[in-house]
Amino acid sequence: MSKPVKQIHLAAHFPGVNNTTVWSDPAAGSQIDFSSFVHLARTAERAKFDFLFLAEGLRLREQRGRIHDLDVVGRPDTFTVLAALAGVTDRLGLAGTINSTFNEPYEVARQFASLDHLSDGRAAWNVVTSWDEFTGENFRRGGYLAREDRYARAQQFLAAVRALLDSWHGDEIVADRASGTFLDAPGPGRFDHHVDQFDISGHFNVPRSPQGHPVIFQAGDSEQGREFAASAADAIFTRHGTLDAGKAFYADVKGRLAKYGRTPEQLLILPGVTFVLGDTEADAREKADVIRHQQVSGATAITFVERLWNRDLTAYDPDGPLPDVEPLDDADPIVRGRADANRQDRAETLAQWRAVAEEKKLSIRELVIELTGRQSFIGTPAQVAQELDDFVQADASDGFILAPHLTPGGLDEFVDTVVPLLQERGVFRTEYEGTTLRDHLGLAHPDHPRTAAGAGGARAAS
Amino acid sequence: MSRPPVPLHLAVALEGAGWHPAAWREPDARPADLFTARYWADLVAEAERGLLDLVTLEDSLGLQSSVRTGPDGRTDQVRGRLDAVLTAARIAPLTRHIGLVPVAVVTHTEPFHLSKAVATLDHVSSGRAGVQVRVSATPDEAAHFGRRDVPRLPIAELDSPAGRALLDELFGEAADYVEVVRRLWDSWEDDAEIRDVATGRFIDREKLHYIDFEGRHFKVKGPSITPRPPQGQPVVAALAHRTEPFRLVAGSADLGFTTPHDTAQAASIVAEIRSEQERAGRGGETVHVFGDLVVFLDEEPGRAAERRARLDAALAAPHTGDAQVFAGTAAELADLLADFAQAGLTGFRLRPATLPYDLARITRDLVPELQRRGLFRASYQADTLRGLLGLPRPANRYTPA
Ligand SMILES: Cc1cc2nc3c(=O)[nH]c(=O)nc-3n(C[C@H](O)[C@H](O)[C@H](O)COP(=O)(O)O)c2cc1C
């Protein structure tokens, strides 16, 4: 029997602080002016996208002990820019990456509850767990978490935030002028939460927000990360953007849900993907090649191989062969402040790289372009629309977080040419049906524990 | 009048349904809207219509309370609020001239986060951001974070040795906090972003700086992840009632909110802040000292006092707070402000007793009255908050002179 056709979810990733974002193109605009954020948000909303997504890193990246200067550097505060965007959009979801190590639940809970109020129910939180001491140097608490504790803290952090958000039920504020009754009972927002990471109690001070809880994203690929997502997240932001890897990841994570009493629709899989469009397939491929060369300059290629070799390779010519020296396994990591630092199996990866370079006769730069640069979807709008649809229908994902390579106009063409084709195929909305991000994503509004048993799916009115 | 009139600066402090605890019961109050963006946007638009320098937005890391030591269990007053920095950001794109100054607590929070949040507020408002730093001295707010103990001290005990020790610690920490926030704002030079295609460099990293702050309370490395805000240094404000916070204003802020109840007190507060300013080596810098007043305003004589009495009747005892309560006409208020200005205050922050009513009386009655007297601007003449306050855009401490 044929499966029902799945609807695709689409999101816009503000071009990030990494070499995917091309700043050298004459069309590349500011990474910090609010107008760039407004442009991308309005473009996404015009196309009825589910949400806009912001990444975050709390320490500028360094390589060879110095601030990395080849990629875009600098970004706004996540909460603040999302709150401002709530003022220039009506329906678009607003998803922010917020770290669970270098924050405290009371603050994060009130920031997300406030953002949800100020956006009428459009807030989402991508819970990330970067824990390192390097980042910790920017915080009064310092770096203090062992890598293996990162998800224990994240789990407890999220549970604490949910407890705080649930401390208001949604019906406390009566505001009856005649009797002078503002609250139905004294001391709203009461909470007591005592676990090993958090020993907190008192009163939460933000009334229940339209969504109850922000939509929860998880981004992290380890065993623990997947388990955390299966137990507690509404969506996963993943890097598995190829069909086979996507299908494997999708089956793996959705398969973990049953043991938490959850069903597959309760956890959406949304890979971050890139795209290049052209009038013909050949045109798109040519453009894609130009973009890859913009993304991987000679200097960027050297920094890339340095991360694997873990040593200074500035003396090598990016247009020459791979370095003949051996990697430095035991040295301190040459790169710091990247979510994916030092995660490769060095010896194995190195052997693969040497083999590819040998076989195809590639220079350092060409090899890096070959290995890293390929965009996820390349073709005419019709081809890309078809591929995106196939990808979702094949259960490789539930949609995509699109990362354009140009700020702020990198999504314009996609929105004008691919989105109408997806709409024609009947796999993408032509109008927003609901008002909240949970509505867009087909996620239930969490009932407050006090009312869940009684009123069924009723949503707290605020 | 002994001196020619010097134009005044005028701010409005927004809090809930107004500063009187019974304000939410007024016929035009909007208690059901307090947690919507529309409510705050409407109020700030009204303040901007009145050409005010800035609005402040109150905040706290706990429930509002009528007592200083913790929650009061009352059900007849507004409780609950939205994060002020986010509220300010939400309103920024809807306004063009007015300064946006949210309150932020500096006791339990991270200076790195606040620095980039206010820098971002400055980016999204094109240079209209400030922040009013606030110390949290209650055990209940400390328990929300569970990271330190704060003793329970009633106001009467603030002058005991334990009280002074606590205030010294908290305000000393606040000064360090502001220092970190300010260094982080400067940690990117204005021209750090170079986009040099020839060398492939997006930034000139020589123009990004570690701040390497090490104080008694914390260390912070830097640089910020957010480029230098448009104003260079957004405006830092603090409310001050006594010596420890006066010192914070004098040593760290651009703007102090004070609560004199007569002109003699105003003169002595200004004198104390000016001398602390000299002591801190900031004698040559502009530090504004504003007076705070809770205001009931009506054009019909006696009407404001009547309203005040009616609102007070809803309480067990008449409402008094830290600031003097004024009830009268716009002309009477203008007289009072002119007198206070003679005592050295450079501006005022009015706290509308009820919203939106008293705010509209400020913008529609008081402002025209002050304009007639040559005491207030007739149009916005600057497009940043520093500009409105007559503060220059400061040089970056890390840029070689
Ligand atoms: C697709 C993806 C995006 C991520 N984005 C961020 C980010 O914006 N900021 C951040 O600090 N970490 C980010 N991370 C890092 C993860 O949250 C996590 O801290 C890290 O991957 C370690 O967890 P893991 O061992 O489960 O992968 C991202 C990870 C993935 C897979």
TrEMBL record, chain A:
Species annotation: Actinacidiphila yanglinensis
One Pfam assignment: Bac_luciferase
Region described as Disordered: 441-462
Extent of Basic and acidic residues compositional bias: 441-450
Domain named Luciferase-like: residues: 26-394
InterPro entries assigned to the protein according to its UniProt record, in alphabetical order: Diverse_substr_monoxygenases, Luciferase-like_dom, Luciferase-like_sf, NTA_MOA
Family according to the record: Belongs to the NtaA/SnaA/DszA monooxygenase family.
Protein known as: FMN-dependent oxidoreductase, nitrilotriacetate monooxygenase family
From TrEMBL, chain B:
Binding sites annotated in the UniProt record for FMN: 59
Keywords: Flavoprotein, FMN, Monooxygenase, Oxidoreductase
One MF term in the entry's GO annotations: oxidoreductase activity, acting on paired donors, with incorporation or reduction of molecular oxygen
Short name of any one Pfam family annotated for the protein: Bac_luciferase
Domain Luciferase-like: 31-330
InterPro entries linked: Diverse_substr_monoxygenases (IPR051260), Luciferase-like_dom (IPR011251), Luciferase-like_sf (IPR036661), NTA_MOA (IPR016215)
Family membership noted in the UniProt record: Belongs to the NtaA/SnaA/DszA monooxygenase family.
Protein name: Flavin-dependent oxidoreductase, luciferase family (Includes alkanesulfonate monooxygenase SsuD and methylene tetrahydromethanopterin reductase)
